Structures
1.
Amino acid sequence: MTYEIMRGGTLDYEFYRHGRSRLRFRGPAKDGTAPYVAFVGGTETFGKFIPDPFPRLVEGLIQTDCVNLGLCNAGLDAHLSDPDVAELIAAARLRVFQIIGAQNMSNRFYTVHRRRNDRFVSARTPLRLLYPEVDFADFHFTRHMLMHLHRTGPRRVAMIRRELQGLWEERMRSLLRAAEGPSVLFWFARGAPPQRMDRPGCAMTADPMFVTRGMVDRVARDATALTEVVISGRAAAGDVAGMHCDEMDLPAAASMLGVRAHREAAEALAQTIRPLM
């Protein structure tokens, strides 16, 4: 197994901000004068530890500027709540929306950080009433909190899951309907969307978290196309070859989709995008 350890620093992501937005995106920044494809998504779209994430690879394959609007650990709230980013998405010739998990959104049970959506901010009254035995001051991240709630009371956490699943569909539709022109919904994971989540622990281990086949199919009605990439066995097995990270980040890097997976994603997306341009 090979990887490149970056001595004295990490991969240069060429961070930039668009307009007055406080969100930082991976560069290089585009001047916006040429037609472009906007890629909206989470950690995989951003390409943490990946020298050439799939948006950059697609750019080379279709010979059109591609703007990477991926955010590490993003929920849907970050992109939806930023008017400058919404403007950038709307102005794109075509938009690709990565399907991300449902856990990192503010809802009637808890709130998340406005920009760093994986950060748990506070429990609302319904959640405190649902789990009176839990001290929510112990949590800083949504996934950690939800895993604890599942261990404490799996039947109760199902109520939160259903709330998040409904909101996810609503907010995904809002993203897809916010701009005219073609859009591609993109599933990129180690497995296909699960049909159901009623098996013990299934909902908590699935990634993207809480997203089912039915949810994907319903939201896809508002997209021009749906592209699904379930990465191959060779790409799925914790392959960190070609990733840029230091030794402390190796466990995190091994849990992510690697260079080979990004190549598979780019090839599939390019085939979908070309006829739509």
2.
Amino acid sequence: MAKPPPLEQARRWWKERTHAERYVVAPAEAPSVAVARVLRQDGLVLDVAGKHAWILTPGKVADGRAVFLANYWAVIALVLKRYAPAAVAGVAAIRLHLEDFSPPEELAVYQGANQSEYALTLYPGFRLRLRPRALAAENVVTVTAPGNALIPVQTPVDILTTLDETEVVSGIEPVSAWLRHLILRTPELAAAVEKNPRPVIVKRLSALAAELGNEPLARQLEHLVRRISHRETSPSRTGVGTRIAVPQVLRAASRGSGSPWLDEQAMRLERQESEVGRLVGRELAALPKFKWQSLRADAEQNKANDAYHSTTMEGYRISREVSDAVVRGEPLPEGPQDQKTLEAAMAVQGYTVAYSEVLERARKQRPINTDLILDLYEALFRPAVDARITDAAALRGWRVSTVGLRGWRYVPPNPKKIPDLIGGLERFAARENLDPITRALLVHLEFVTIHPFMDGNGRLGRLLMNYALLAAGLPWVTIRSDERIPFFRAIERAQVDGDAKPFIQFVWHLIRQAVQELRSRSHTPHSRSRSKA
């Protein structure tokens, strides 16, 4: 019997794999060169990793980067099989052990397939750094990444015995959060250290563990140093306290009072607070404090504008005319309205309800806490619930499943971490010595980083920022939807690359602009103290 033509074979092959939810495959699985050609020509596959992997797509895609990011870890899992034995290495391995699954622009991997070191481009802007090293099975464990991708990763013991000073310095935050809570069995650690004796690095890690308050690990490592080296290594030679600086916030905290993710949050907020101070500090004292009547009048005047931009920024499709009518409480313009427009109208209406709630509560200067967050979240979706577009049951409490952000590198934390992280955010926001700009900017940034809900996080984050500004006597700030891409990129830089400067500069510019505009319309500003919120 004659074979079906290549097009028919290609479509059948594609359907079989997508029905089995296999969206990342090796090109070698194609039944023939002709079928592979059809798959590429019809846009049913996206070539990645130097054409060593395919991502199955429903047709030619406009945003290949978004498709690649959504399948990043499945691509890594497939490619690493080609270089087996292989394992994600060093600080990248530590991040995976800490359940940080945001795709890095460069991923370090040990591979035993050959003796060459080189970089493999996965997709423009992303690459795999392959370093030769013999890997024994006992040095590799499997971590389950998003999409149930099984990623081979260095074991904690193997990481400890192969880290170098440069890696520790550049990755001090994840390394500190990991080391601070690390518990290892002495026989396994001793066997690894004796097999790969590196007394200087082991001593360095022992000193670092001691600085972080992990005395059991510090003693284990110190004992092993004595076994493998007869030379006494002084603490000054480890680099700890000089080249390797333990974040101050961890020195002041009890090891038993937190978790790796709370430690990461504390270090992140400490670093970002320092950056706000560096970029904004000198100008804080000159900020005016406006009377509540002026702030409220300004915010009410801005309500329709802010509701339109904050809602359409999140992808809702609605015209300015319809959005403004919804804010004013007027009926929608006559004529048929499609489902998307109705959903957008409910989103605008919900934002308007939450906006009014912010104005009422900011006047009373209530703290930023779980009750406030949940109340604003309920207000944000109240009209959609009333219209039966959204199920009220889905709005109770924090999200309980993992979530991805299409087109962006950042992967929000596992839902089990959310209560702890929200608690950390509450404590940060409640600090009496926190200046109002730092509070507003970092409450916003940290809230969207925690991403505690399945939907509405961006809108709610901006509402919380403005709540903090109003409570501090500063005007409402609107982020326009036509600035969506640079704004979201600035957030991503802070979340994934640890660089909050673009986000701080972006929002600080808007705050200064809003202050100048309101000051030009108001004749009763009062001087303010930097230390008061």
3.
Amino acid sequence: MVTDRLSGLPAYSEFVAHVETAPPARPRWPFAVIVAVGLALILAPIITGMFPRAARGEAMIDAFGPYVSRSSIDGYRDDLRVLDGARANVLALRSQGLEQGRYDRVDSFVRDYPGIRSDISSMLDAIDANRDNYRRLADLPPIGALPWLLALAGVILTGAGVFGFRRAAAGGRGVVWRSIAALAALGLIAISLAGGLFSAASAGRPLIEGFRPILTHDEVREVQGYFVTLVAADGDLNSRYTGAIRAAHPDADLAGIAALEARWQPMTSRFAALIGTMNDNIDNFDAVAALDEATKPLRFTAFRGLGWFYLAPGVVVFAAAAAGLREPGKERQ
């Protein structure tokens, strides 16, 4: 009897146009891709040691700035020509029989200078040959900031991917999180293209190979030893050696030695600054070389792939963020 009464009540569906159901889950794979790329961007600089190595690379580029220029290299070559002239002056005096006695330090200079000149010239040639490569690397955004830009983009993408995944699971399209991911992706693309990363890609390896022979502890010690020889010779040339010759032969031609004396202080100051910079940056150079070789297991060097480290993730994330945006439906968040 009670059942008969209840059966006469109107059904719920008679009061509503349709029965509400939970919205179906949206595709979540775009957000999974975004999370995967984000995590890769965070881990890659850590695994390759990019943070400390890039910072060392930036320090090295800044330190070599005053020396990797045409005017600087020309100045060093002019210094060598003055040394050439001083040695030629000594040999001319010797051939004329005008020397007064023997001077071991001057003899060492005459004997050793051709080798010294050859080695220093090779060092200057290596710097000169890589001026354009250096300039392209120096024109990059600060190298020390590059791993932080990757990691920052990685953090943003990981967060956007996680929250977007949850929103898609609840039936929303996660437009806000897609938009955040897309903006981060555009930032990566902009850095790769506007930051000159592709033009610098071909500069890194030649610069490393060009500087490798000169930025070693052995080479720096050898060059430092050259100046022990030169300093000792200059001390004799401009005191006892020329004094004795002038006393015996007032009209002797000492122009080459005099030119060395006039240029000696600025010359030694310039060379000391260059050699000091080389010595201070050997470890920085080794760090840059190690960074470049960190990706060798992938069959390319890091500088060669520098632009792609930003462009490829940016394109992938942007495509993933755009996927599904045009699906029908009113849900926008």
